[in-house]
UniProtKB/TrEMBL annotation, chains A, B:
<keyword id="KW-0325">Glycoprotein</keyword>
<keyword id="KW-0758">Storage protein</keyword>
<dbReference type="GO" id="GO:0045735">
    <property type="term" value="F:nutrient reservoir activity"/>
</dbReference>
<protein>
    <submittedName>
        <fullName>Acid phosphatase 1-like</fullName>
    </submittedName>
</protein>
<comment type="function">
    <text>May function as somatic storage protein during early seedling development.</text>
</comment>
<comment type="similarity">
    <text>Belongs to the APS1/VSP family.</text>
</comment>
<dbReference type="InterPro" id="IPR023214">
    <property type="entry name" value="HAD_sf"/>
</dbReference>
<feature type="signal peptide">
    <location>
        <begin position="1"/>
        <end position="18"/>
    </location>
</feature>
<dbReference type="InterPro" id="IPR005519">
    <property type="entry name" value="Acid_phosphat_B-like"/>
</dbReference>
<dbReference type="Pfam" id="PF03767">
    <property type="entry name" value="Acid_phosphat_B"/>
</dbReference>
<keyword id="KW-0732">Signal</keyword>
<dbReference type="InterPro" id="IPR010028">
    <property type="entry name" value="Acid_phosphatase_pln"/>
</dbReference>
<dbReference type="InterPro" id="IPR036412">
    <property type="entry name" value="HAD-like_sf"/>
</dbReference>
<dbReference type="GO" id="GO:0003993">
    <property type="term" value="F:acid phosphatase activity"/>
</dbReference>
<dbReference type="InterPro" id="IPR014403">
    <property type="entry name" value="APS1/VSP"/>
</dbReference>
């Protein structure tokens, strides 16, 4: 873990150097752990099995990453496997998008969630135990308000491909409405320069679960004539419920669970 | 691969010795591959990422396992990781079932798929490239008609726990109606001694997709007063569609995909 922290500090410095520039380097994991993640032996609980359980929505409603899996999740997120896993998802999405015959009437939209989908908060979570620490809304908000989250490169690649295919993009995020400005600026800095809509969680959804809020907003989209041809998120609450779209794509996220 | 085949033959002999007995040993993987699966480095395509993509329903509609992943999938299925992954799913299901306050009016049912859920066809697939060979309906039917498929031990553990909690079990399988007798006998031999219903695919569903057939049969169950409190399968077509139940559980299966 010491090595990980050391490397992380080095990364933070690297990222900070770019913070005054217009764009954020597309690097969510400059770190290189000593050993490969994705199959490390963990005595007792199999963290690999736990992660698969999370990704398949078998392990639900958990509050924090199991303590014994901190190193495992850290290595996974900072190593090659997270990016490889994300690449397979994005590649499947690209193949699917290319296979469609779109009407090109401006009504085909692709939904992206923001956190751990369009943008990566890995620089934050690397400083907070990769999900082992209980969620701290104050510190996380502070990080969000810096507006320095890099793109998840695989999502940005998909985004650019979708635009080239004539698809419009809608961002649908659980971030609250009062983070609109910083979110707009962060998306632009990270390389997302255009979108049809950016939907943030309005106060009327206060206390409502993400699944309810996102289903309701997707329904509104469809009722106003949009066709949701694809829907990508890191949480199952992005992808389940109603009006989920023609096909959904689940990006990995073993760091937190949102109902 | 040669070692795998040699070990497999040894297993086949072991399993055969028990074939005249009333029960089938609960062993789906006597084999011990040389190296652990779940994280082996595969040049080019990451088979681990491909498998995660399959399990999360990002990689859909595939016909065969990618050729370069035969060894990977074989090691995974015959090694510890498949069983560990299955155990996490079954344990989550047990925790969930224990958390429920059941009416005990005989209307609470738990759905199990059969192939790669209640029963394991691993002895067959180990002889047929673990899904690399295209599906051969003649040979697979021959294997099914032998009625010698062992239980997936984790599913059998869950089954017994559910019965002890007062839950009734319904098997809902894509096997055709004319395999009822062999399926009844195989389930009993493997350790499943009682159930509320065993639903096989009737001729009226001929040509219909599994998702349509299973949704329709689940709807009938609910319309006749049953409450589907849990639903476990190895295919997303067991778990998506309508009337899916209060909670679903996805067992691993990187060997084939059923729409």
């Amino acid at each position: 873990m010491a090595l990980l922290l050391f490397l992380f500090l080095a990364t933070t410095l690297t990222i900070s150097q770019g913070s005054d520039q217009e764009t954020i380097p597309h690097k969510v994991h400059l770190l290189r752990p000593q050993s490969g993640a994705g199959g490390d032996h963990v005595p007792g609980l199999s963290c690999l099995s736990w992660r698969l359980g999370v990704e398949t929505n078998n392990v639900v409603g958990w509050i924090t990453v199991p303590e014994e899996c901190e190193d495992y999740v850290g290595h996974y997120m900072l190593g090659h496997q997270y990016r490889k896993d994300s690449r397979v998802v994005a590649n499947q999405a690209i193949l699917y998008a290319q296979s469609l015959s779109l009407a090109r009437d401006g009504k085909d939209v692709w939904l992206f969630d923001i956190d751990e989908t369009a943008l990566s908060n890995l620089p934050y979570f690397a400083q907070h135990g990769f999900g082992v620490e209980p969620y701290n809304p104050t510190l996380f908000k502070k990080w969000v308000m810096e507006g320095q989250a890099p793109a998840l490169p695989e999502s940005l690649t998909l985004y650019k491909k979708l635009l080239s295919l004539g698809t419009k993009v809608v961002f649908l995020t659980g971030r609250p409405e009062d983070q609109r400005t910083v979110t707009v600026n962060n998306l632009r800095k990270a390389g997302y320069h255009t979108w049809e809509k950016l939907i943030l969680k309005g106060s009327s959804y206060s206390g409502k679960k993400a699944l309810v809020y996102k289903s309701s907003e997707r329904k509104k989209l469809e009722e106003s004539g949009y066709r949701i041809i694809g829907n990508m998120g890191d949480q199952w609450s992005d992808l389940l419920g109603t009006n989920v779209g023609n096909r959904t794509f689940k990006l990995p996220d073993p760091m937190y669970y949102i109902s």
